[in-house]
């Protein structure tokens, strides 16, 4: 790691900001709105609206629509991923894991970092998928709630288990049976994400933080608390704090959680709701404590000793970013071979050592230890049994629930 | 009948000889206009029609959206989000006034006093455009951070006590308050104010100032009676170029603001991308456009200038 210079933003910080705005998980860019309003209105609301007076319904073909699989003839794979979400060789700027994959299988991976935001990416590919067209991508990575929506809408293809022996054998128990894709028929996790509480020791100045309740109530933290714009993380963490289970809750439970956070918003306790850019608020000390993503914390801690994290007694939220094969993809088998490749312990360890998120591959520890001992012992990268037992997932929502909940949650964030 | 059958021959003989060159000449301007018109149709007219259509549709993502002429969307959107509308107008107006107060003296300086420094100062005005809008806004997060020297100084001078009493800031911080958002807007749109002002001022004949002096006008009177009225086109176009994008901006509110500083741009963004309520998002866009159009029309009428810039 490079040395931390207080005047200049640290590399992790720059990376986070770049990821966030060019951008990150919940990024907002001027371009994104422009693209959304011009491209989106034109394509989504648009063409259909003028000709057929309406936006076509999403297709509901179970199992997805496959195209002719050209995998045998065309040894290529179009892989779309988030920025800075794969190993990079500092010198050559190439991706060693993908190079090794190409060497072994002869499949050249066309790797594109064009997923900046789940919502935005969905807006981009939805018209093509709804119209039954090839998106030009064979493998995409989406956070589980969007993966659930894609499966529900019939936009992705069922995977062939016979091509996925390693994936089937090595997937961690923690990620085996999400309620939106039981048995992993459509998706395999790329990386897992732990949602925890992060703090800045200097800014906290001795104030004790142990739980989400402290964030919401402690008057000493007024205006210095950050929450995430990702609904499932902010609501889920608060729900756990209130003793409710995010895996099975009712509308009333949801409303109660919203009311609890609303009270804190009204008091001015919460400074703002953020995407990935919370990292800069946290390192500057504008946030004394906030809800945060584990992978970011590993990177921030490497550069800023003031950053710490804790897992509340009530537990923490986990989610995953999942590999999916969209409808009409031309190289499905190639995609499946890549999925399987990343479930072999060595490539998985290489990936985990670089990206610092939770590895979904069981028994990767000895391999990771060979590359980076600290990473192998970091529970944010490889949760131990005790920690994994405290992890919770957010239950799958119906479209109606999702709209209603997002509506309520966005009101909480001011709009 | 006979006249009809007789008439064609002379026409037919004359037409091929005379008409083509004339027609070509007459159509040339239209051909030249074509790229512009096409551009306007594809990137302005069509999206507008689509948006209008979307705003009167109902449905959901799974069932699709159909035009049902559900105009209540407009009313519901306005009833629900009028605070954000009002806030957008207020913030944009505040930023515009600040831009004018900051920009006018600078434009005046560049136009009349800068001499050989003129080009350098112009470059300094335009220089921020060489970096991304987002990076510039992010820089303000560092400048206004809670532990930054700026905020520290303002606290020491008790300026923030005053602004907090007015509701512009909260406690001893500037970030995540209305003041920060307005500052961000002002900073980001300042060049749009300075450039038209400069063009207007630069065109004023220096001899008019001398003439005013000869007629015993003091400098202030010269400014009030000669310079300012002549710069009105710049003032009007500068305020429009600042106010209109500022009212629809959402980046500043997103990065520098808090939950109670969200502007209408943020609402539209959320509705469109997060909640996937396309009709409401489209309706909000139209309301914003109509509101701005009405305000601008009124403003141009009252300001009484014919030409902008």
Mean pLDDT of chain B: 89
**Could you describe the largest sheet of chain B, including whether it forms a barrel?**
2 strands, antiparallel
Shape of chain A: globular
Order of helices and strands of chain B: HHEEHHHHHHHHHHHH
Gross CATH architecture of the largest domain in chain A: 3-Layer(aba) Sandwich
CATH topology of the largest domain in chain A: D-Maltodextrin-Binding Protein, domain 2
Low-confidence regions of chain B: 1-17
Instruction: Name the CATH superfamily assignment of the largest domain in chain A.
Output: Periplasmic binding protein-like II
- As residue ranges, the low-confidence spans of chain A are 1-7, 16-53
Helix content of chain B: over 70%
Distance between the termini of chain B: 61 Å
Total helical elements of chain B: 14
The CATH C-level class name of the largest domain in chain B: Mainly Alpha
Beginning-to-end CA distance, first to last residue of chain A: 40 Å
- Over all CA atoms, what is the radius of gyration of chain A? 21 Å
Mean pLDDT of chain A: 86
**Biggest beta sheet attributes of chain A:** 10 strands, mixed
Order of strands side by side in the largest beta sheet of chain B? 1-2
Radius of gyration of chain B: 27 Å
Number of strands of chain B: 2
Describe the protein in words.
The complex is a heterodimer of chains A (415) and B (309). Chain A has 18 helices and eleven strands. Chain A has 415 residues and is of the alpha/beta class. Chain A folds into two domains: 210 residues, D-Maltodextrin-Binding Protein, domain 2, CATH 3.40.190.10; 140 residues, D-Maltodextrin-Binding Protein, domain 2 (3-Layer(aba) Sandwich). In chain A, strands 2, 3, 4, 5, 6, 7, 8, 9, 10 and 11 form a ten-stranded mixed sheet that branches. In chain A, helix 3 links the parallel strand 2 and strand 3. In chain A, helix 1 packs antiparallel against helix 12, helix 2 runs parallel beside helix 4 and helix 10 runs parallel beside helix 18. The longest helix of chain A has 23 residues. The radius of gyration of chain A is 21 Å and the shape is globular. The two termini of chain A are 40 Å apart. Chain B has 309 residues and is mostly helical. Chain B has two domains: 51 residues, no CATH class; 231 residues, MetI-like fold, CATH 1.10.3720.10. Chain B is globular and about 75 Å long. The relative contact order of chain B is 0.12. The interface between A and B is large, with 56 and 58 residues. Strand 1 of chain A pairs antiparallel with strand 2 of chain B. Chain B: InterPro entries: MetI-like, MetI-like_sf. Chain B: It comes from Streptomyces spiralis. Chain B: Keywords: Cell membrane, Membrane, Transmembrane, Transmembrane helix, Transport. Chain B: This is ABC transporter permease. Chain B: Pfam families: BPD_transp_1. Chain A: InterPro entries: SBP (IPR006059), Sperm_putr-bd (IPR001188), TAT_signal (IPR006311).
């Amino acid at each position: 790691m490079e040395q931390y210079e207080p005047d200049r933003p640290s590399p992790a910080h720059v990376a986070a900001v770049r990821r966030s705005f060019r951008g990150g998980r919940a990024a907002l860019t001027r371009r994104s709105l422009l693209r959304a309003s011009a491209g989106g209105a034109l394509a989504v609301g648009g063409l259909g609206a003028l000709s057929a007076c309406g936006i076509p319904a999403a297709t509901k073909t179970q199992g997805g629509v496959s195209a002719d699989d050209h995998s045998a003839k065309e040894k290529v794979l179009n892989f779309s991923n988030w920025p800075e979400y794969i190993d990079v060789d500092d010198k050559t700027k190439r991706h060693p894991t993908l190079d090794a994959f190409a060497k072994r299988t002869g499949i050249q991976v066309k790797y594109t970092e064009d997923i900046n935001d789940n919502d935005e990416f969905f807006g981009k590919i939805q018209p093509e998928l709804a119209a039954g067209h090839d998106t030009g991508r064979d493998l995409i990575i989406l956070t589980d709630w969007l993966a659930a929506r894609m499966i529900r809408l019939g936009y992705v293809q069922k995977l062939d288990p016979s091509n996925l022996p390693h994936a089937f054998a090595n997937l961690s128990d923690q990620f085996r049976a999400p309620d939106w894709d039981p048995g992993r028929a459509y998706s395999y996790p790329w990386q897992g994400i732990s949602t925890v509480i992060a703090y800045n020791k200097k800014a906290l100045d001795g104030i004790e933080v142990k739980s989400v309740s402290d964030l919401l109530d402690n008057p000493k933290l007024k205006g210095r608390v950050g929450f995430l714009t990702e609904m499932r993380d902010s609501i889920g963490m608060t729900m756990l704090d209130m003793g409710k289970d995010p895996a099975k809750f009712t509308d009333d439970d949801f409303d109660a959680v919203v009311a609890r956070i609303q009270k804190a918003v009204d008091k001015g306790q919460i400074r703002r709701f953020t995407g990935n850019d919370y990292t800069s608020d946290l390192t500057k000390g504008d946030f004394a404590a906030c809800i945060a993503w584990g992978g970011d914390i590993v990177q921030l801690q490497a550069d800023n000793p003031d950053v710490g994290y804790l897992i509340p007694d009530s537990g923490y939220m986990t989610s995953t970013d999942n590999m999916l094969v969209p409808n009409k993809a031309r190289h499905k088998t190639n995609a499946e071979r890549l999925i399987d490749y990343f479930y072999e312990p060595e490539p998985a360890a290489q990936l985990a050592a670089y990206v610092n998120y939770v590895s979904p591959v069981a028994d990767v520890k000895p391999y990771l230890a060979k590359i980076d001992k600290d990473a192998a012992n970091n529970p944010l990268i490889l949760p131990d049994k005790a920690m994994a037992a405290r992890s919770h997932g957010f239950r799958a929502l119906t479209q109606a629930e999702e709209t209603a909940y997002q509506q309520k949650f966005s009101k909480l964030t001011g709009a | 009948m006979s006249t009809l059958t007789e008439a064609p021959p002379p026409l037919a003989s004359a037409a091929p000889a005379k008409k083509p060159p004339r027609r070509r000449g007459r159509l040339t301007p239209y051909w030249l206009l074509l790229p512009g018109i096409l551009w306007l149709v594809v990137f302005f007219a069509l999206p507008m029609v689509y948006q209008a259509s979307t705003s009167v549709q109902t449905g959901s993502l799974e069932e699709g959206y159909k035009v049902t002429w559900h105009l209540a969307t407009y009313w519901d959107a306005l009833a629900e989000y009028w605070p954000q509308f009002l806030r957008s107008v207020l913030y944009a107006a505040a930023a515009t006034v600040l831009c004018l107060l900051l920009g006018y003296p600078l434009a005046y300086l560049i136009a009349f006093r800068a001499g050989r420094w003129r080009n350098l100062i112009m470059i300094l005005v335009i220089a921020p455009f060489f970096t991304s809008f987002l990076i510039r806004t992010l820089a303000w997060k560092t400048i206004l951070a809670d532990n930054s020297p700026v905020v520290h100084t303002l606290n020491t001078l008790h300026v923030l006590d005053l602004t907090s009493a007015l509701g512009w800031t909260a406690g001893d911080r500037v970030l995540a308050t209305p003041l920060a958002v307005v500052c961000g807007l002002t900073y980001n749109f300042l060049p749009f104010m300075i450039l038209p002002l400069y063009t207007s001022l630069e065109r004023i004949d220096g001899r008019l100032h001398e003439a005013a002096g000869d007629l015993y006008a003091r400098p202030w009177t010269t400014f009030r009676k000669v310079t300012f009225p002549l710069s009105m086109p710049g003032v009007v176009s500068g305020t429009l170029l600042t106010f209109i994008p500022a009212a629809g901006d959402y980046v500043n509110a997103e990065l520098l603001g808090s939950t109670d500083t969200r502007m209408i741009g943020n609402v539209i963004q959320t509705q469109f991308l997060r909640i996937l309520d396309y009709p409401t998002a489209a309706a909000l866009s139209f309301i914003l456009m109509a509101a701005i159009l009405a305000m601008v029309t009124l403003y141009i009428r009252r300001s009484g200038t014919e030409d902008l810039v």
